[in-house]
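Reminder to self: C-alpha cells first, then the designed residues, so the page reads top to bottom the way the pipeline ran.
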C-alpha cells in the first residue's frame, strides 16, 4: 500500500527512534547531554536556539549512515538557571572546542544550524585549526532580528507562558518559510522547541543580537559549505549567499522550497549534499 506524501512524512517523524549513545560531559561547569551515532569520519552537529539534540536527531540519523555523528547539548538545555554563565556566543564556541578535545576528535567537520551556525562560525574564526571543514545552514555573520523575533523575545522574557503557547507557535511556524501543513513535521518542531525553557530561548535570542563575526571571516581557511533554503524567512537566502561570498573558497548551495528548518524538511537532500561536499574535501587532502 502506497502512503500519501503528507501521511508518509507524519509516519516517518512519529516513528523515528533514536539509535545511538547518550552520555553527559561537563562543559563550562555544567553537565550537558552528548549524543553519538554511526561510524566513519567525525561530524559534529551543533543544535539551534531551541529543541536541542532531539530536533537534530532525524538529520543525524541520515548522516550517521556514513559518518560518526556527534550532537552536543548546549549549556542551559538541562539546567536553565545555568544560562547566566553563558555570556556570549564565544562561550558556546569554547564549549564546542572543549567537547572536541574531550572526545578526542581530530579536526572534525562541524555543521551548525541557525544559532548553532553562529557557534560554529565563532569557533571557525577564532580556532580554525580545530576544524577539518565547516557546514552552515540558516546562518549569517551578523544576525539581524526581524520584528517577529524581537516580539517573541520580549514575550518570552516578560510573560510566563503555558507549554504550546499559540502566539509563540506562530513564530515557530515561520521556521518553515510559510504556514506548514498540520501534523507531522510542524508538530515535531513545536514539540521539540518547547522542550527548551522559554527563558533560555529569550536569552539566546539576545545573544544572537550581539553576535558579529563579519570583520573576522577572513580568518576562515577551511573548506566551507553554506546551505540556504529558498524560503528561509528568518535568514533569507541572499544574506546566506553574502556570507559564503565573504569566506574564501566557500561553496554555496540552495535547498529549493526549504525554510529555516530545511535540515528537517529536506534532510535527505541535506545529508546527500553534505556527504558529497565532505567526500570532495577528503579527496582533496589525499
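Designed residues (286 positions):
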Amino acid at each position: 500500500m502506497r502512503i500519501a506524501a503528507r501521511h508518509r512524512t507524519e509516519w516517518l517523524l512519529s516513528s523515528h527512534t533514536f539509535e545511538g549513545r547518550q552520555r553527559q560531559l561537563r562543559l563550562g561547569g555544567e553537565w550537558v547531554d552528548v549524543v553519538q551515532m554511526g561510524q566513519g569520519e567525525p561530524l559534529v552537529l551543533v543544535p539551534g536556539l531551541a529543541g536541542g539534540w532531539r530536533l537534530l536527531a532525524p538529520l543525524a540519523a541520515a548522516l550517521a549512515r556514513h559518518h560518526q555523528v556527534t550532537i552536543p547539548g548546549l549549556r542551559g538545555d538541562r539546567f536553565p538557571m545555568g544560562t547566566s554563565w553563558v555570556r556570549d556566543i564565544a562561550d558556546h564556541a569554547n564549549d564546542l572546542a572543549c567537547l572536541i578535545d574531550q572526545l578526542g576528535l581530530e579536526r572534525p567537520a562541524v555543521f551548525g544550524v541557525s544559532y548553532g551556525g553562529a557557534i560554529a562560525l565563532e569557533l571557525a574564526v577564532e580556532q580554525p585549526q580545530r576544524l577539518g571543514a565547516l557546514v552552515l545552514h540558516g546562518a549569517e555573520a551578523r544576525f539581524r532580528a526581524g520584528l517577529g523575533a524581537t516580539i517573541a523575545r520580549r514575550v518570552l522574557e516578560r510573560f510566563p507562558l503555558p507549554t504550546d503557547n499559540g502566539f509563540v507557535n506562530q513564530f515557530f511556524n515561520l521556521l518553515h518559510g510559510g504556514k506548514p501543513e498540520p501534523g507531522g513535521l510542524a508538530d515535531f518542531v513545536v514539540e521539540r522547541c518547547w522542550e527548551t525553557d522559554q527563558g533560555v530561548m529569550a536569552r539566546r535570542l539576545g545573544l544572537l543580537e550581539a553576535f558579529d563575526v563579519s570583520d573576522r571571516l577572513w580568518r576562515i581557511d577551511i573548506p566551507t559549505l553554506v546551505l540556504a533554503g529558498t524560503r528561509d524567512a528568518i535568514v533569507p537566502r541572499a544574506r546566506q549567499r553574502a556570507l559564503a561570498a565573504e569566506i574564501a573558497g566557500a561553496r554555496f548551495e540552495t535547498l529549493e522550497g526549504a525554510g529555516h528548518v530545511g535540515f528537517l524538511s529536506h534532510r535527505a537532500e541535506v545529508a546527500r549534499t553534505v556527504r558529497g561536499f565532505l567526500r570532495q574535501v577528503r579527496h582533496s587532502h589525499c
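The CA atoms of residues 263 and 270 lie 6 Å apart.
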